[in-house]
Design a protein that fits this description.
Layout lengths: L6 H9 L17 H6 L17 H4 L12 E5 L11 H14 L2 H9 L6 H13 L10 E5 L6
Helix pairs in contact: 4-5
């Protein structure tokens, strides 16, 4: 399938592999991305990856698996300008801290722009830069409006 052009195409595609939710009793379900995607599951698909419908925190409205169904603007890529003005000693420490936080492969997904940087991970990047003394504005390669599918 090519890149999805509509929300429906995107959600149908995500329903094939995303952790979805069918808990209609959850007070947050109408605005949860996992529940929204669950509405697009192919009825011919015999097995799906889903949240336990009896998961207690969900019933109480405190589900840590909740994902807001509103798209947000996220930075993409740290290749072109991110390290441009940084002294090499600071840039190397920041890079190593970001690799240590996840792993080398995940770092390069963010670095190369193949994965958008979630708001939580962007905050972590900013904190890491400040921790190593870089207080200048950060310059990511571009931005994209997308859903925050997962938090890191």
């Amino acid at each position: 399938m090519k890149n999805p052009k509509t929300k429906e195409e995107l959600f149908r595609r995500k329903a094939e592999s995303y952790l979805i939710c069918f808990n209609h009793g959850c007070p947050q379900h109408e605005h949860c991305l996992r529940w929204q995607v669950g509405q697009y599951v192919n009825p011919k698909q015999t097995v799906v990856n889903c949240v336990n419908p009896y998961y207690a925190p969900a019933a109480e409205g405190h589900c840590d698996l909740y994902r807001d169904d509103q798209p947000v603007t996220m930075p993409v890529g740290m290749k072109e300008h991110f390290y441009y003005d940084m002294p090499a000693r600071i840039a190397q420490k920041i890079k190593q801290a970001l690799i240590d936080h996840n792993c080398r492969a995940t770092y390069y997904h963010y670095h190369n722009g193949t994965r958008p940087i979630s708001p939580d991970y962007e905050a972590f990047i900013r904190q890491t830069c400040q921790r190593f003394g870089w207080t200048q504005p950060l310059q990511f390669d571009s931005t994209i409006e997308d859903y925050v599918w997962e938090e890191i």
